[in-house]
Amino acid sequence: MNLHRHFHNRGVGSNKPVPNPAWDTLSLAFAALAGHVRFLVYDLAPEDAPLRLSRTGITLRGSERWTAYLSRRRALDDGQLTLVLALRHLQRTERLLAVDWGTAHANAFLLIEPLDPEIDLSSARQVAARDVRAAAERRDAALVESMLRSLYGSWVYWPAAPATEDGTQQAGLPLTEARATLFERLQQALPDIFPPRAFVEQLSRLLRDESELFHGRTVERARSPFLTRLGLPAVYDPTLVTVAVRHLVNEGRISAFPAGGGGFFQGPSVPVPDEVPNELFERMLL
Fold first, then answer.
1. Which residues partner with 230 through β-bridges?
2. What integer pLDDT is reported at residue 5 of this predicted model?
3. Is the peptide bond before 153 cis (omega within 30 degrees of 0)?
4. Where are the beta strands (DSSP E) in the chain?
5. On the chain, which terminus has fewer CB atoms closer than 10 Å, C or N?
């Protein structure tokens, strides 16, 4: 029996899942593992994975579980960081589809897989999956959390845009400390993978190649590409984009205009004064 089907049994003639305390227990354990932040469980077994029907990837063949996953993901597609906790290591194409296909804010979804590529919690054929299921059926949330802690996690990310199927890298996020969470480990890893200078570098490239994305828009809107384009630095701190824009204005690469009029800033001769707070600077126009 497939593990995810066990947790998602449906009543006869019904399209709605039957209430399942075991799945609720597993969800609580995942929430604790994530750090009680926004998360989404990617619960598809390999046979339920979506398949491209064309080279463009515009058309897919998806299972019922894929459709249900898309519905849950759509409800969280607002640009806030969201962990996507996969029950197994995904194939290259599937990884890209899981976070990028049909999303408005692909770069806000952070994909986390088990540390061991052989682990597949969607399959009851595996001992680890059966043990997790048994503990969940007993509603032993503490034991389920302990088991999951030993199995997670590996952060799958795209270090360059545009994101491609072969362009992934992985960073281990082992939860060796007693109360460590995946979100805390990510907060430590993100500045190493995407340091502040990466935002300046990528913003410089976008200004050079796609300046129409910025002209006539507020400084705050400069975050948009970083939220929508998989492969750009993930916005773990919104002020990083603001500071990057400010840096480029002060270098003279782009102008910033106060919303109420009255001149402009473009360094190095007319830099943005240090006393102008980021909150005010973000309302200026580029």
1. 232
2. 52
3. yes
4. 39-42, 51-52, 60-61, 82-86, 109-114, 152-157, 169-172
5. N
Q: State the distance between the two ends of the chain, measured CA to CA, in whole angstroms.
A: 57
Instruction: Give the Cα separation of 93 and 13 in Å (integer).
Output: 33
Q: Which of 128, 247, 139 is nearest to 198 (CA)?
A: 247
Whole-model pTM: value is 0.90
Alpha carbon of 120 to those of 25, 44, 46, 76, 129: distances in Å? 19, 10, 9, 25, 7
> For the chain, which residues score pLDDT lower than 70?
1-19, 53-59
CA distance 273 to 33: 43
Place of tokens 């540390």: 115
Task: Give the H or E element holding residue 4.
Answer: helix 3-7
Q: With contact defined as beta carbons under 8 Å apart, do 65 and 5 qualify?
A: no
134-182 pLDDT, tens digit each: 999 999 999 999 999 999 999 999 999 999 999 999 999 999 888 899 9
Whether the ω angle into residue 268 lies within 30 degrees of 0, i.e. cis, is yes
Which residue, 66, 178, 185, is CA-closest to 122?
A: 66
Helix (H, G, I), strand (E, B) or coil at 247: helix
| Pairing label, strands 109-114, 152-157 | antiparallel
- Cα(54)–Cα(276) distance, integer angstroms: 51
The verdict on whether omega for the bond into residue 21 sits within 30 degrees of 0, i.e. cis, is no
Answer for the pair 226, 232: CB distance below 8 angstroms, yes or no: yes
Instruction: State the DSSP string of 173-199.
Output: ----STT--HHHHHHHHHHHHS-HHHH
Long-range contacts of 263-272 (CB under 8 A, 24+ apart): 272/246
